[in-house]
Amino acid sequence: MSALSVDEFEKHLRSLCDRAYERPSSPDNPVMKLMQGELSIEEARQFWGGRWNRVLLLSQYVLPNLIRRCPHHDMRVELWPSVSVEYGGGDLAQSHPVLYRDFLTAIGIPEAECSFTLPADDPAIAREIDRLDGYDWLELLGRFLGRETVGPKVFPMIEEALAKAFGLDEHALAWFRVHGIQDQEDADDVFKVVRRYAITAEAQAKIEQAVQSWFDDSPEYCCAVGSMSYFYAAA
Ligand SMILES: [Fe+2]
What we know:
globular
């Protein structure tokens, strides 16, 4: 199989990203239930609390390994602005794990349950780290790109729906807001890197599969919940 041109591949990848947000949503999707005004606070705690370890894995494992495994110094530099926002650009209070912890405590999860240390003896964490260990830098880049598309696509309406459903204030929702705004720019920066390095058929296939695998791992966000926002707004 021959490689697509850089323009063709970017177009193909952007279309893949758009289509991820057209997939049908399962009826018990907590994000869709939120849009319909049917999500209880207990269900919200269960869903977003259950994603805490994923937030920790991103900052403690995925991003450090993306930088470490990347073979090109200039690309590490190019990725750094998108990566550093996860760490608050050096401001702990603005780092994304802290903002996410603040959201979890605002919906009633005790702070004591939001340890910043990953539970090393948790088999699910060990399995996820094993899986990530099998990824090379292009695959980690693809996973990062998939993740960066979520915020602009669905977080603004989730932020609005959470505020309405649970009376959360601006600070409690900052994690959603910063991703809704910042990640469009970050995704564009990652696309620039993809254009430079995904120039073989093998590299393009790796990136595409990794992007798709991230969408498949996050069906609650990566589906057509976006269409629900119109119903929500009209309600
Ligand atoms: Fe983040």
